[in-house]
Design brief:
Layout (H helix, E strand, L loop, with lengths): L2 E4 L9 E7 L6 E2 L4 E6 L4 E5 L4 E6 L6 E3 L3 E6 L6 H10 L11 E4 L26 H10 L17 H9 L17 E6 L2 H16 L12 H11 L8 H15 L5 E3 L3 E5 L2
Antiparallel strand pairs: 1-8, 2-4, 2-7, 3-6, 4-5, 6-8, 9-10, 10-12, 11-12
Helix pairs in contact: 2-3
Length: about 280
Amino acid sequence: MAEVIRMPKLSDTMEEGTLVEWHKKIGDKVSAGELLAEIESDKATMEFESPEDGTILYFGVEAGETIPVEAVLTIIGEKGEDYKALLEAAKQEAPAPVAKESAPVEVSASASVPPPATVESIPTPSGNGRILASPLAKRLAKEAGVDISRIKGTGDEGRIVKKDVEQFVASGGAVEAIALPAIVGEESFEEVNLSQMRKTIARRLAESKFNAPHFYLTMEIDMANAIDARQRMNEVSPVKISFNDMIIKSAAAALRNHPKVNASFLGDRIRYDHH
């Protein structure tokens, strides 16, 4: 008999989850304990194993979509089994679906202005030195004897997923060159929806601003070389160069190398400016 598999509650605070990737297709056979999907909660991305033996008859969510806990995730049963009545009953009991997250949308101030070159999403360690990769991708890379830090991630925030490892191994380990973004004079940007984990982090950070005491740090910078450089530049420059000009120039150069810092938090999404 067919069984309805619902979105699991992977943490005490989880209210909804995002289906990162299916590892099976409709019509595939699956055994209990076999890897079925990767699910992102408000804390981490976890591998989800099938609780049942059988054939996958129905998917209630596509990769990249978000649904509430206890909503219909999939239905597993015998091949060719009629599951429609079971699905209708399950949907009536399930929570209301969460709006599907849209793909990143690029908005330009002028349609005639070509979009700037983008920086290739080569995975870099996070602040704690951890490479962003799914558990399955890490396991496949280890089995193939591949340094996972050399693999370009195509998942959310440059995350390395299964297909990235497979493509890297198939290509013999070729690494794409990093292209610096072009200098842009026109205003343009792209907006990316926040993952469940980042939504939770943002909410907790906002709460801590009001509930926790803060200690602010300052630092001193030795500007002797900057003072000397400004004096020499102003001896030949047709316009007067100020210290503000030098700081703005330095910040602009840094943002070209670190474009994700040039961003704004908009509640449920992040806006990355190209200018």
